[in-house]
Amino acid sequence: MDMKISGYKNYIFDFYGTLCNIWTNEKKRYLWENLSEVFRSQKADYHAGQLQKKYLSLCRQETERMQDEKQYDLIEIDLLKVFESLYLEKGITVSEETLKETMVIFRLLSLEYMNVFKGVRELLTQLRNDGCRVYLLSNAQSVFTEYEMERMSLKQYFDGICYSSDAGYRKPSERFFDRLFEQYGLNKDESIMIGNDLYSDIKAAHKYGLASVYIKTIQSSKGNAVLPDDALRVRDIEELLELYLKDKEKGA
């Protein structure tokens, strides 16, 4: 397929698995033992097993509550409310700052590894230098991802960000795409989606009326997927940058 990558005003990226490689493990005993100490420091007395069980139970309850409220399956809970409930279960009220700090500690304890894919900063810099606008549409918890974007020095590249935890919906929901396009006044004909998930990013973009680029990374589903006609497959971000520069040169 002869598809141009340059010439768009808005470049919309997925985050995890597309721009960065991350792996977490929330089942580690080490995590819950250390997290229980964090709660105890705020007078919320949990032992490790009790805390893990209550956390999972509250996640299920919040998911069911939101599904009932919105009458929709593709919802995204906000873990900030779950962590608030964990404190309230022990009769403790803490500030939003303490809630976020607790969540970041939870995330750090679960983290196995995290790194930015090669070529990401170069691509984002090139797009910004060319006057394009860069957006993030991510199935993610804002508290986690805000911290990780700052840690990897990526946040400054984006003109706008939408997290599923803030929206209450997740990709492939059209409602989540709507939130981004309405919030930033985007036009579909001027926009392209870049992601590593065939269904949540690429087929969802096609259904929404967007061209897209599929990057098959280590976190993509296995197998050779059939792409929509308005999608292009590349092996990595570095190839995407190379094709973008070639297209730009041809159009000059």
What's a quick, concise take on this entry?
The protein has 252 residues and is an alpha/beta fold. The protein folds into two domains: 10-19 and 117-251, HAD superfamily/HAD-like (Rossmann fold, 3-Layer(aba) Sandwich); 24-112. It has helices at residues 29-41, 48-70, 79-88, 96-110, 120-129, 142-151, 164-167, 174-184, 198-208, 237-251; strands at 10-13, 20-24, 111-116, 133-138, 160-163, 191-195, 211-215, 231-234.
Key terms for this structure?
single chain; 252 residues; alpha/beta; Rossmann fold; 6-stranded parallel beta sheet; two-stranded antiparallel sheet; 10 helices; 15% strand; elongated
Number of strands: 8
CATH topology of the largest domain: Rossmann fold
The CATH class assignment of the largest domain is Alpha Beta
Which sheet architecture does the biggest sheet show? 6 strands, parallel
Proportion of residues in β-strands: 15-25%
How confident is the prediction overall: mean pLDDT?
A: 94
Structure description:
The protein has helices at residues 29-41, 48-70, 79-88, 96-110, 120-129, 142-151, 164-167, 174-184, 198-208, 237-251; strands at 10-13, 20-24, 111-116, 133-138, 160-163, 191-195, 211-215, 231-234. The protein is an alpha/beta fold and 252 residues long. It folds into 2 domains: 10-19 and 117-251, 3-Layer(aba) Sandwich (Rossmann fold), CATH 3.40.50; 24-112. The protein has a 6-stranded parallel beta sheet, sandwiched between helices. Strands 2-3 form a two-stranded antiparallel ribbon. Helix 6 links the parallel strand 4 and strand 5 (160-163). Helix 2 crosses helix 3 and helix 3 crosses helix 4 (96-110). It starts with 9 loop residues before the first strand and ends with a helix. The model has no long low-confidence stretch (mean pLDDT 94).
